[in-house]
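re: ur question from yesterday

yeah so i grabbed the chain u mentioned. its 331 aa long if i counted rite. heres the sequnce exactly as i have it in my notes:
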Amino acid sequence: MPPTKHVIALLALLAVAVAGAGCGGSASGASNKVSLVAYSTPKEAYGALIPAFGRTPAGRGVEFTQSYGASGDQSRAVESGLGADVVAFSLEPDVTRLVDDGLIDKSWNQNAHRGMVTDSVVVLAVRKGNPKHIHGWADLVKPGVEVITPNPFTSGGARWNVMAAYGSQIAQGRTPEQATAYLKQLFQHVSVQDKAARDALQTFSGGKGDVLISYENEAITAQQKGEQLDYVIPDQTILIENPIAVTKDAGSRAKSFVNYLWTKPAQRIFAEKGYRPVDPSLVDPKRFPEPKDLFTIQKFGGWGVVSDRFFDKDNGVVAGIEKSLGVSTSG
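ran it thru and got these structure tokens back, copy pasting raw so excuse formatting
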């Protein structure tokens, strides 16, 4: 006997309900799935954080997909259609790009930590025993010193490195012109510019270079993996602040995950992996000593000003330096 119109209508409604139950508005297409798109260095940290979140009531049964790469590249990939529920980038402009495109809400950084999930500082990683006697920024431009740092037009870490180097000169009383001249001199000592901070570490670990300009957490991760390197925290360096955000279509599980990352248990995991917690009460001064002269990106007007002045691919200060050396500025 064929079904009546009422039965057909009821079956149609049930089908819609079942389909809706499998969707949470997330990039992953299911309410229990979360897609994380991140910059290259925190892979080990999230390797510990995701299982820890899974042991909480909010994280039980959540499945993750993960993508890691150069911060700028990852941001542009999401802009171009790569599905993401949570984005974790090296620096704020890579989130701002997605806000401008309508993929992330403008209020993403309206919390106690301004949307920043971890801190770090720029350090100088050196060979075991520091055979070139690297103690500060002046040592990087001495004859015979070979420097490794990523390409600032693909890597967020590289941009932090540049501003640490530039700011170190300002902190020592030099003029902007003198600080720019130092950058030009520094890049003449750079032999390899990889796409991402993790790639630069691999280049350095492979035996290339005398100094790697890097995140403190990246140097600590390398040591935890048994790499034979030391690192120096220069007297003048920049505070690195790493943002995290959910996309507009992310479901409740993604939001719960991001909220979890600001809890004390999660921040302790970040600390174990070499990151400085954004919770000041969790910062161990013995492990994370404060540099003599620590400055922030706000010293130079914030990322909005800095991105235009230094990293505009056509007219920026760094673009001019890179072009003079024959290095690509296409990010």
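noticed a couple things. Residues 120-240+290-325 form a domain with the D-Maltodextrin-Binding Protein; domain 2 fold (CATH 3.40.190.10). also The mean pLDDT is 91.
anyway ttyl
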